[in-house]
Amino acid sequence: MRLRGLMVGAALAATLLAGPGLAHPHVWVVVKSQIVFDASGKIAAIRHAWTFDEMYSAFQTQGLAKDGKKATRADMADLAKLQAEQLAEFDFFTVAKAAGRKQGYGTPTEVSLEEGDDKLVTLRFTLPLKETASAGRAFALQVYDPSYFVSFEYDKTGAVTLDGAPAGCTVNIVQPPPLIAEDAKKKDESFFSGLSPGAEFGVKLASRAVVACP
User: Fold this and answer.
1) What is the Cα–Cα distance from 178 to 170, expressed in whole angstroms?
2) How many whole angstroms separate alpha carbon 60 and alpha carbon 18?
3) Which of 91, 165, 170, 186 has the most CB atoms within 10 Å of its CB?
């Protein structure tokens, strides 16, 4: 079963409620990311925290919470492991580039799922780069689903932070053009289902975090 397969239950419920005119996306995720530097001052990993929308959160916790209590990390450990494994098929929906060169990833660590007091589920994992990268010529990070089945949006506050960065490093968020985002709301399901492979509509709506170090 693929990651999107895990989302079908929640997405189908939303589709039935909203009717046939529902457009993408079907699942919404609020993203916080931390760029992790090693002792030599190079970027070694990306630490993600993805908080899912109310409907998909409820879908994930169904049958896991006991006695009306919220689902704990222990309750969701097997599901967290499964999601991390399946995220690899999609390169973790994470595109990182150092000096314009796309980076590869190792096996994620510190993987967990947990339900918060607000009933929203957050997936946390640390994604090591296969090779450490310099931010001297700018390091760019985007999180998006090319098909736009899943909408990833950076948190409004503290969306991207730096951990262990050398003095003088900065991070800035570049937002997508507002006209493109507005146009996406007008697309119906037939538009997205008709996209050719590799069309990557999602990248047009993806914010970009740019890290620069002296």
Assistant:
1) 24
2) 21
3) 165
